[in-house]
Specification:
Pfam families: URO-D. The chain has about 350 residues and is α/β, with parallel strands linked by helices. Helices cover about 45% and strands about 10% of the residues. Bound molecules: coproporphyrinogen III (CP3). Coproporphyrinogen III (CP3) binds near residues 39 and 100.
C-alpha cells in the first residue's frame, strides 16, 4: 500500500503531495508545512480526550492514537500528519520500567549504567507494538493523499534518558560513559539503534510515507565526538531505512555545529532549529539534501505582524535550499494559540504559491 516506496510506479496523489515532493527536492505547488508536536497540549480537544488517561496508555490505544493524530489535521491545513506516540514507547514495549511524568518527561525506574544494565535492552519485535501497526493502518486510510510521518528517538537522546534516568541539563552521566567507557557506550548505542530501526520499520510497513529521527538532545555534543560516538549509529539507522524509499528527516535542537554531520549520517532532509538561518544552514549541509524548519516557536506569542514578518523571512531563506519543508525550529509550545498556527499555515501556503 506504500506508493511512496515505489517511485518507479505511477506516482499517485500521495507521492505528488507537496510534503513528499519537497523532501525529494522536486518542484512544489506551495511550500509544505507541518509542526513538530502539532498534536497535544495546545489543543483543548486533546486535553479533553486525554482526561484521566496516562500518556503511555494513550500511546497504546489505536483509537486514541488515530483520533489525536487527526485532531490537528481538522484544525490546520498542514501538509503532513505526525504519528501520535513518544520516543520512549518502544522502550516501554520491550519491558523497560518507565513513565512519562506531566511537566517533566520520561522517567526511568532503573537507569542503565553498566554492562549488566544493557541486558534490559532486548530487540524490539513487531509483535511488541501491535497497536502501532493498527493505528498507522487506520490513519493511512483516513489521511488519503496526506502523508503520515512516522518517527523514533535518536540513539543519543534515548541513551541520555536511559542513563540519566530522566531529563538532564548537562548530560553528565551520559557523557561520562561516552568519553570514559567507549566500548560500553557503543554496545548501548548499537542496541538502541536496533530498536529505533525496528520501530521505524513497523511504521513504514504499516504505511507511513516518511520518517523523522528526533535526536533532540544531541546538540550538547561537540562535532568531533558526534562523528566518533554518535554518527556511526545514526548512520546505520538511515542506511537500514534507505531500502524503503521513504524520505528520512533528521532533527535535533541546538545542532548548528552538527548540521553537516547530521546530513552525512544519511538523512534526506535535515531539520534546523531557529538558531541558524536557513540560508546559512544551506552552506553547512552538503548538496543533495532538503531542509526543514525553522521559525522560533516562541515567535507565535508575538503580535501577528511579527509572526508574519518572521515567517516570510524563513520562507525567503528557505528558497535557497534544494527543497524546503516549513516547520517550527522545535515543537509547538504548550500554551500556543491554535488559531495562530492555523493562520500561519495559510500564510505559508499563500506566500509560497508562486514558487
Ligand atoms: O509531534 C507530535 O505531535 C507527535 C507526538 C510526539 C510526542 N512526543 C507526544 C507527547 C512526538 C513526536 C514526541 C517526541 C518526543 N518525546 C521527543 C522529541 C521531540 C522534542 O520535543 O524534542 C522527546 C524529547 C520526547 C520525550 C518527552 N515526552 C518529553 C520531553 C515530554 C514532555 C513532558 C511534559 O509534560 O512537559 C513528553 C510527553 C509528551 N509526548 C506529551 C506529548 C503530547 C505531553 C504529555 C501529555 O500531554 O500528558
Amino acid at each position: 500500500p506504500n506508493d511512496a516506496a515505489n517511485p518507479s510506479d505511477d506516482p499517485g496523489p500521495l507521492a505528488e503531495s507537496p510534503f513528499l515532493l519537497a523532501c525529494r527536492r522536486r518542484p512544489v505547488p506551495h511550500t509544505p508545512v507541518w509542526f513538530m508536536r502539532q498534536a497535544g497540549r495546545a489543543l483543548p480537544e486533546y486535553l479533553r480526550l486525554r482526561e484521566g488517561v496516562p500518556m503511555l496508555e494513550s500511546c497504546a490505544r489505536p483509537d486514541m492514537i488515530v483520533e489525536i493524530t487527526m485532531q490537528p489535521m481538522r484544525r490546520y491545513g498542514v501538509d503532513a500528519a505526525i504519528f501520535f506516540s513518544d520516543i520512549v514507547v518502544p522502550l516501554k514495549a520491550i519491558g523497560i520500567d518507565l513513565d512519562i511524568k506531566p511537566g517533566v518527561g520520561p522517567v526511568i525506574a532503573d537507569p542503565i549504567r553498566d554492562a549488566a544494565g544493557l541486558e534490559a535492552l532486548r530487540p524490539l519485535e513487531p509483535g511488541d507494538v501491535p497497536y502501532v501497526t493498527e493505528a498507522v493502518q487506520g490513519l493511512v486510510g483516513e489521511l488519503g493523499a496526506t502523508p503520515l510521518i512516522g518517527f523514533a528517538g535518536g540513539p543519543f537522546t534515548l541513551a541520555s534518558y536511559l542513563i540519566e534516568g530522566g531529563p538532564s541539563k548537562n548530560q553528565e552521566r551520559t557523557k561520562a560513559m561516552m568519553y570514559g567507557e567507549p566500548e560500553l557506550w557503543d554496545r548501548l548505542m548499537g542496541r538502541l539503534a536496533d530498536i529505533t530501526i525496528a520501530f521505524l520499520k513497523v511504521q513504514i510497513a504499516a504505511g507511513a510515507s516518511a520518517i523523522q529521527v528526533f535526536d533532540s538532545w544531541v546538540g550538547s555534543v561537540a562535532p568531533e565526538d558526534y562523528r566518533a560516538s554518535v554518527l556511526p549509529h545514526t548512520g546505520r539507522i538511515f542506511a537500514e531505512i534507505e531500502q524503503f524509499g521513504v524520505p528520512r528527516i533528521h532533527f535535533g535542537v541546538g545542532t548548528g555545529e552538527l548540521l553537516g554531520l547530521m546530513g552525512e549520517a544519511g538523512a534526506d532532509v535535515v531539520g534546523v532549529d531557529w538558531r541558524v538561518p536557513l540560508d546559512e544552514a544551506v552552506r553547512r549541509v552538503e548538496p543533495g539534501k532538503a531542509l526543514q524548519g525553522n521559525l522560533d516557536p516562541a515567535v507565535l506569542f508575538a503580535p501577528w505582524e511579527t509572526v508574519e514578518r518572521r515567517a516570510l523571512d524563513v520562507l525567503a531563506r528557505g528558497r535557497t535550499a534544494e527543497g524546503h519543508v516549513f516547520n517550527l525550529g522545535h515543537g509547538v509550545l504548550p500554551s500556543t494559540n491554535p488559531d495562530v498556527l492555523a493562520r500561519l499555515v495559510d500564510l505559508v501556503h499563500e506566500a509560497s504559491t508562486a514558487r
